[in-house]
Write a structure and sequence with these properties.
alpha/beta, 11-stranded mixed sheet, 5 helices, 13 strands
Length: 322
Amino acid sequence: MKFTVDPWDPSYGASVDGELAESSAEIDTGVEVPVERWAPIDPDRSLVPPEAVLFVDGVRRIDAQVWVDEGQGVASPALCATYAAGVVCSCPDGGAHLVAAHVRRGLFSTVAAGADVDTGAGSYRFSHTPARPGADPTQVLSLAVQRSMAEVELLAAAQARADHGVADDLLVVDGPLRGRQHLPRAVGFVKTHDKTYLPTELGGIVAALGSGQRTPVFRLGSAAQDLLAQRFTWYLRLPCAPGSPWAGVARVECSGQLAPAEAVVLAGVSQGSLIRFASTEYKDSRAPQNLYPIAGLERQLRRRLGDPKLMYRALRRAAATA
């Protein structure tokens, strides 16, 4: 019996779901080449690499689940969370270095009237999140934390661009580009897959990708949709050891507001850049998709979250004196 072992650490889930669900999104596979000419594309060595590559990422941690007293014996669940976002710049002059980092703490609750929670270790800013009928409150609150983290990522990206950006830099967002499509020269880097976007007859192109190769660019979303809802996207296989058909494959996307020709150029430029930062198995348990600058940024940000036990004790003390 022949088999391969996925290098992705299973404690992070799977890099590819066992059975990829079919996406309901409309697609246009003729953006870069006609369907009949679809084939793996090698890096274009004639393209000028960006002068700097900026990597954006965020981390979050739930410090405590709390209950907000609404009176008359009624209490609603809430989350106390710490989250952070930052940017690492990789450029010839300074190598990879941190250029922006922001840390926030929040109390996320479905209760309309609330207040900030001050502790000896930091303050948690109150944030109201409307409840959704039939939805698990904890899931609603967790999504609210995620949205707040995305807002801080946007803030960090804007600061990095203002302070350290150059005219031809490339901004790489860890995860989908959602909410950041307006950022120029930006791509979203999606490490894991839970659905397939390509029709069956083209899906085999992904499995056929060699190290450093990508698929042609295709469009997600119909022409009837607003451009903000559309995305150009492509699959890229990062350098890695031979394995499963989807080993080392990431999906990269850019704004649907770009002209098709601009999206194709961005795909080529990002292809040549991203493969340089692919991690290796002996250094990273999520190799090769967890790019070295992103992994380093995550470590830097997690250190800035503070000690979780200290924050938990501080919250317990604040609750006892409230």
